[in-house]
C-alpha cells in the first residue's frame, strides 16, 4: 500500500477532495477571486496555466510524492482553494503541506484553519508522521504569520533556494511541527475554530 493514498477529508466548514482534472474550471474561478496569480511572492496558477498545473500535480501524485486536494466550502459547495501533501518520505515518515492558496473572499473565515486541522490530523494520527513541514517565501509575511499561528517552529532559511517565475531568487523559510507538538497544535486549532479540545471535528 502506498504511503499517500487518495482520501477525502471532511470537516464542518470545508471538505478536502483529491484533485481531479474536472476541478479545472472551479480552481480557475477560485484563483480569480482576488486575482491571486498577481502576487509576486507566491505561485498561484493563472487561468492560462491552471490546466498544466493540475496535470503536473496529478503526475507527481502518480509518482507517489504528492497528494493534491481542492478545498470545497461546505456552506455553498464552492471550491475556494487548493492544498497539497508533498515531498512525502514514507521511510521517516514525514511530509510537507504546501502549494496552498485560498480565494480572497474565503481568507480569514476559518477555511485555512480547518483545512490545516484536517491535514495535520490525517498526517499524524493516520499516516503516523514524525514531522510535518511547511515552506514559504521570506517575503510572504501573511503565510509566515499563518504558519506561526499554527504553532510550527522555524527550522531555518534556505537562501536563494529557488527561482520565481519573474526571475527573482526566493529565500525559503522552513517550519515544522513534530509529533510530540501535535496535541498542543491540535488544541490551538480547535480553540480558534470554537471547538472543545475533545471534539474530533
Automatic annotation (TrEMBL):
InterPro entries: Acyl_CoA_acyltransferase, GNAT_dom. Residues 16-153 form the N-acetyltransferase domain. The keyword Nucleus does not apply. It comes from the Bacteria. Keywords: Transferase. SUPFAM superfamilies: Acyl-CoA N-acyltransferases (Nat). This is Protein N-acetyltransferase, RimJ/RimL family. Gene3D superfamilies: 3.40.630.30. Signal peptide: none annotated. The lineage of its organism: Bacteria, Bacillati, Actinomycetota, Actinomycetes, Geodermatophilales. The keyword Transferase applies. One of its GO terms (molecular function) is acyltransferase activity, transferring groups other than amino-acyl groups. It holds the Pfam family Acetyltransf_3. Transmembrane segments: none annotated.
Amino acid at each position: 500500500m502506498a504511503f499517500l493514498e487518495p482520501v477525502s477529508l471532511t470537516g464542518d466548514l470545508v471538505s478536502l477532495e483529491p484533485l481531479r482534472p474536472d476541478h479545472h474550471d472551479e480552481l480557475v474561478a477560485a484563483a480569480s477571486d482576488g486575482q491571486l496569480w498577481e502576487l509576486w511572492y507566491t505561485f498561484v496558477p493563472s487561468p492560462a496555466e491552471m490546466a498544466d498545473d493540475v496535470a503536473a500535480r496529478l503526475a507527481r501524485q502518480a509518482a507517489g510524492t504528492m497528494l493534491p486536494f481542492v478545498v470545497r466550502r461546505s456552506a455553498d459547495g464552492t471550491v475556494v482553494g487548493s492544498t497539497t501533501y508533498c515531498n512525502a518520505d514514507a521511510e521517516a515518515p514525514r511530509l510537507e503541506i504546501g502549494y496552498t492558496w485560498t480565494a480572497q473572499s474565503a481568507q480569514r473565515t476559518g477555511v485555512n484553519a480547518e483545512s490545516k486541522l484536517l491535514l495535520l490530523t490525517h498526517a499524524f494520527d493516520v499516516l503516523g508522521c514524525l514531522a510535518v513541514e511547511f515552506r514559504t517565501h521570506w517575503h510572504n509575511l501573511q503565510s509566515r504569520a499563518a504558519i506561526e499561528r499554527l504553532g510550527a517552529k522555524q527550522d531555518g532559511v534556505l537562501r536563494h533556494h529557488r527561482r520565481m517565475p519573474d526571475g527573482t531568487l526566493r529565500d525559503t523559510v522552513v517550519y515544522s511541527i513534530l509529533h510530540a507538538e501535535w496535541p498542543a497544535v491540535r488544541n490551538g486549532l480547535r480553540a480558534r475554530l470554537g471547538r472543545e479540545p475533545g471534539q474530533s471535528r
